[in-house]
Specification:
Length: 453
């Protein structure tokens, strides 16, 4: 995430409306809102195709899921931007499906079935709502070191899942699929290096488009849009009745708690960007409630947890436009895209190897974000950070490197220890608490919650 500006934005003149609450004329609102949509559209599109490819969904189901995700992104942007009572931060936020949360959703779906993964989303969203009264206590369990371990392990685990989109379930890919995925990665890289501004932020989407064109022109893949047209609502419960299994849901339950640290940082940064004095104790629970409620709706439509988008904070900094009505306009555009089934049905025809190549880029970036979080943690030789990170990463990587390690253990133990994300995160939390100096533990009994790791 970009760092805070050296000087805060100028305050509004006396008697003038707060910039974040100022209306924007329609002639300016439309292009500004479209810019926000362009900055985040690659995330929902690539996420849906990753889910579709991993779970082998037919084109029609993929189209319906994409419509649902776009509708939820739009509804979330409206809720966060405009607010309803104590729900929504009333800040210029846009929402999208969380990449790390999607990774865990797929992990649960592959190991326990898609209905269990849907149930896990509903449980995780409910847990996030339930712990908000304890916000200041919970957020302290997830300093940069713990967040870094969690995100790094998620990225590593999902690189393996993304690779299966290229190689197929048996792990032996056809050369043409590997070549097509490689060309998609190259196109994505070229777009990111050569383009600037909002176009660079859509490099994943542009890479997918280029990969699809190459597939059609060279015969390396086929473009097969789903049949149908017009406008339609997405399917409710596409994976059937949710199944609730707390042990199977542990990866998402733990992750939902870690999002409080992420939400804190994004809310503080967004407040500073629009010139509002940050008030985490008031605003973070409002943002988290909106995240949780949209995620509950997402579970009913087959998505994973929905989160606020940091990319759009950067757009606000670049343009200098601080009005929350701009992101509300983005929400309206996203709802319209979600209802326009020709758009989602066309996008559903993207070849699987192209999706795999894009997913490799997305989840490799997630892994690097974890490394960056660890870099900001205290890993000096004088503290316990190095030992904590080393043991937590060992606990998290063992299930990936030695999949049969816990075969002889009881089911509940295999569920916890066999999930690298859960094992690594719980190890990091436990060691952070146990090895923290007593004086520091006592000193941290109160005060404001920390910012984003």
């Amino acid at each position: 995430m970009t760092t805070a500006p050296a000087t805060p934005p100028a305050a509004a003149p006396a008697g003038a409306p707060d910039p974040v609450d100022a209306p924007v004329p329609l002639r300016r609102l439309a292009p500004l809102a479209a810019q926000h949509v362009l900055a985040m559209i690659a995330a929902p599109v690539s996420t849906v195709f990753l889910v579709s490819g991993t779970l082998r969904m037919p084109p029609g189901a993929t189209s319906s899921l994409l419509s649902a995700v776009l509708l939820l992104c739009g509804a979330g942007a409206l809720l966060q931007s405009l607010g309803v009572g104590r729900i929504g931060g009333r800040l210029p936020f846009v929402m999208l499906p969380g990449g790390a949360a999607t990774a865990l959703f797929l992990q649960i779906a592959q190991e326990h079935g898609a209905p269990t993964a849907t149930g896990a989303v509903l449980l995780a969203a409910g847990l996030l709502l339930a712990v908000l009264p304890l916000y200041t206590r919970v957020v302290r369990l997830f300093p940069p070191l713990v967040m870094g371990v969690t995100v790094l392990l998620i990225g590593i685990a999902m690189i393996r899942v993304a690779a299966r989109l290229v190689t197929g379930p048996d792990g032996t890919g056809e050369p043409r699929a590997v070549i097509l995925a490689g060309l998609t990665v190259a196109a994505t890289t070229a777009a990111y290096v050569l383009l600037r501004g909002v176009w660079r932020q859509t490099s994943v989407l542009l890479g997918m488009a280029a990969g699809t064109v190459v597939a059609v022109v060279t015969g390396l893949g086929a473009f097969t849009p789903a049949a149908g047209g017009g406008f339609a609502l997405p399917a409710l419960l596409p994976f059937g009745t949710p199944r609730f299994d707390v042990l199977a849901a542990l990866p998402l339950l733990v992750f939902s708690l870690t999002t409080l640290a992420e939400i804190t940082g994004q809310t503080v940064l967004n407040s500073e960007t629009v010139g509002r004095r940050p008030e985490p104790a008031r605003d973070v629970p409002r943002v988290a409630r909106a995240d949780a409620l949209v995620s509950l709706a997402g579970g009913l439509f087959g998505t994973s947890l929905m989160v606020t988008s940091a990319e759009n904070i950067g757009i606000g900094r670049l343009t200098g436009v601080r009005s929350r009505f701009v992101t509300a306009g983005s929400g309206v555009l996203l709802v319209a895209l979600g209802l326009a089934t020709p758009v989602s049905r066309t996008l559903a025809g993207i070849p699987e190897a192209v999706v795999g190549g894009s997913a490799l880029v997305v989840y490799a970036v997630i892994a690097v974000l974890g490394v960056d979080m660890l870099r900001r943690a205290d890993l000096s030789a004088t503290g316990h950070g190095t030992l904590t990170a080393a043991l937590a990463l060992t606990a998290g990587l063992l299930p990936l490197l030695a999949p049969g390690l816990y075969t002889g253990f009881p089911t509940w133990a295999r569920t916890i220890l066999g999930s690298g994300v859960v094992a690594g995160t719980l190890t990091a939390v436990a060691l952070t608490v146990l090895l923290r100096p007593r004086g520091r533990r006592d000193a941290e009994g109160g005060g404001d919650p920390p910012g984003r790791p």
